[in-house]
TrEMBL record:
The lineage of its organism: Bacteria, Pseudomonadati, Pseudomonadota, Betaproteobacteria, Burkholderiales. Pathway: Aromatic compound metabolism. Belongs to the mandelate racemase/muconate lactonizing enzyme family. It holds the Pfam family MR_MLE_C. This is Muconate cycloisomerase. GO terms for molecular function: chloromuconate cycloisomerase activity; manganese ion binding; muconate cycloisomerase activity; racemase and epimerase activity. The active site is at K165, E323. SUPFAM superfamilies: Enolase C-terminal domain-like, Enolase N-terminal domain-like. Residues 144-241 form the Mandelate racemase/muconate lactonizing enzyme C-terminal domain. InterPro entries: Chloromuconate_cycloisomerase, Enolase-like_C_sf, Enolase-like_N, Enolase_C-like, Mandel_Rmase/mucon_lact_enz_CS, Mandelate_racemase_C, Mandelate_racemase_N_dom. Keywords: Aromatic hydrocarbons catabolism, Isomerase, Manganese, Metal-binding. Its cofactor is Mn(2+).
Length: 369
């Protein structure tokens, strides 16, 4: 039986300002959910968002309020071993709130996998890989600093895929910035861009043409998410793959984008999808439609990153890798044992459930009073 549900906000400074077209982050607010069951098993989930309402409709505070006030009361007393049935109750009564639902479902699945003595990946179809390639995002906004940061990551053998956040400046300035970095890092290093919807379709045609010529190998969400027809035109026009990210808020969007051939690659995010099971469906739609897969992040801490890794490890095809570097952007670790990054890969935790454990003392210091 589900006995209690606690939602915790923890403010953690980032290692440097993280510049996106929508906001600049100096702090990440982790939203953590702890579910306790009457058999003594507990599970953890995470609903962290990027820049709060700058990026999406849910803020850390709204997630906490909606879980505490509206979602938790529906779940207390329900059978903790029947996660799908419990989530059906929540999905029937609560519209939207995908991040909140993801955190709750993750915590319930974590508890159930621990109860069964298996890694969470085994409840999601079963893992087919033990390590995931991880991109790093260069988002200092300064070309020289970004090159130095990338070179350091290559030397540490931590990342060899780099994603650049662009879209806040004029197209020509952004293109010059990206191509200077691509030139400095060379042909063997993957350089990609994420425009976070900032361009018009005309700007995208100009920008993507120049980036493609310069050797950039992935273009993420160049235009507004609702402009599916425009995304389809760009995907058809250019050989460089165009990826949908903000456009995908669950399996129905994935289906709609796949049938419209509106993206070559999908960025799968567990929170954006509304939970692990729905994110798995996004992955299935992509694979049925021949769309490439990329494991996305909302810059979560260790819990959300481990949850994402448990799912992405089940994808048969993950040709564009992942960006599960969230914990590396934070100055403080909330896990007892940090996630392991080595040889350009995140090692998928192999213990029961999420395979990670919260350090409750550290979390106690970070949690918002
Ligand atoms: Mg993105």
């Amino acid at each position: 039986m589900i006995k209690s549900i606690e939602t915790i906000l923890a403010d953690v400074p980032t290692i440097r300002p993280h510049k996106l077209s929508v906001t600049t982050m100096n702090t990440q607010t982790l939203v953590l959910v702890r579910v306790r069951c009457d058999d003594g098993v507990e599970g953890w989930g995470e609903a962290t968002t990027i820049g709060g309402l700058n990026y999406g409709e849910e803020s850390p505070e709204s997630i906490k309020t909606n879980i505490d006030t509206h979602i938790a009361p529906l779940l207390i007393g329900l059978d903790a071993t029947r996660v799908a049935a419990a989530m059906a109750v929540v999905r029937k009564a609560i519209q939207g709130n995908r991040f909140a639902k993801c955190a709750i479902e993750t915590a319930l699945l974590d508890a159930q996998a621990r109860r069964l003595g298996v890694p969470l990946s085994e409840l999601l179809g079963g893992r087919v890989r033990e390590a995931l390639p991880v991109a790093w995002t260069l988002a200092s906004g300064d070309t020289g600093k970004d090159i130095a940061e990338a070179e350091k990551m290559l030397e540490l053998r931590r990342h060899r895929i780099f994603k650049l956040k662009i879209g806040a400046r004029a197209v020509a300035d952004d293109v010059a910035h990206v191509l200077a970095i691509k030139k400095a890092l060379g042909a063997d290093v993957s350089v990609r861009v994420d425009v976070n919807q900032a361009w018009s379709e005309l700007q995208a045609m100009e920008g993507i043409a120049a980036l493609q010529d310069g050797g950039v190998d992935l273009i993420e969400q160049p235009i507004r998410a609702h402009n599916k027809a425009g995304m389809a035109r760009l995907a058809q026009r250019f050989a460089v793959p165009v990826m949908a990210d903000e456009a995908l808020q669950g399996p129905l969007d994935a289906y709609s984008y796949a049938t419209a051939a509106a993206a070559d690659v999908f960025a799968v995010k567990i929170t954006q999808s509304g939970g692990l099971m729905l994110a798995a469906q996004v992955g299935t739609v992509a694979q049925l439609a021949g769309v490439g897969l990329y494991g996305g992040t909302m810059l979560e801490g260790g819990i959300g990153t481990a949850a994402s890794a448990q799912l992405f490890a089940t994808f048969a095809d993950l040709s564009f890798g992942t960006e599960l570097f969230g914990p590396l952007l934070l100055t403080e670790e909330v896990l007892q044992e940090p996630l392991v990054y080595k040889d350009f890969m995140l090692q998928v935790p192999s213990g029961h459930g999420l395979g990670v454990a919260i350090d409750t003392d550290k979390l106690g210091h970070l949690r918002r009073k």
